[in-house]
Amino acid sequence: MAKKQPKNKIEQVQELIPYGSDHPITAKQISKLTAIPLRGVYGIVRYLLVHGNVPIGALRDDDKHGYFIITSEEERQATLAPLCSHAKEIEERISCIKAIQIE
Questions:
Q1: What is the 3-state secondary structure (H, E, C) of the chain?
Q2: 69 forms bridges with which residues in the sheet?
Q3: What angle do CA 15, 19, 23 make, to 5 degrees?
Q4: Which residues, at least 6 apart from 53, have a Cβ–Cβ distance to it below 8 Å?
Q5: What angle do CA 92, 38, 48 make, to 5 degrees?
Q6: Banded model confidence at residue 4, pLDDT cuts 50, 70, 90
Q7: Which domain of life is it from (predicted)?
Q8: How far apart are alpha carbons 19 and 56 in whole angstroms?
Q9: 8-66 tens-digit pLDDT
Q10: DSSP reduced 3-state for 67
């Protein structure tokens, strides 16, 4: 009988992220369950989204927050709204910094 290979960190994180936004999991929870530091969890989630083409969404509401696998257009829009808002704020800051005269 072949010995089972231990799962790598990417697989561990991906398996913990639930499908749908009903019960998202936080980075802190993933970190506790896998012993991967928080920064590592953030990096793996980014890797899965950008390079693994895994549709990972995130909620930042007071009553519900964490990661989940996007399963509907509604969940996609719920993920995109705060990201677009944050991107706009960053663009405004960039414009202001560029426009400030430095003596």
A1: CCCCCCCCHHHHHHHHCCECCCCCECHHHHHHHHCCCHHHHHHHHHHHHHCCCCCEEEEECCCCEEEEECCCHHHHHHHHHHHHHHHHHHHHHHHHHHHCCCC
A2: 19, 56
A3: 100
A4: none
A5: 75
A6: low
A7: Bacteria
A8: 9
A9: 999 999 999 999 999 999 999 999 999 999 999 999 999 999 999 999 999 988 788 99
A10: strand
CB-based contacts of 47, cutoff 8 Å, min separation 6: 10
Place of tokens 């950008």: 50
Question: What are the start-end ranges of the E strands in the chain?
Answer: 56-60, 65-69
Domains with residue ranges and CATH for the chain: 9-99 (1.10.10.10)
Q: At what angle do helices 38-50 and 27-34 cross, to 10 degrees?
A: 110
Give which of 84, 49, 81 is closest to 68, Cα–Cα: 49
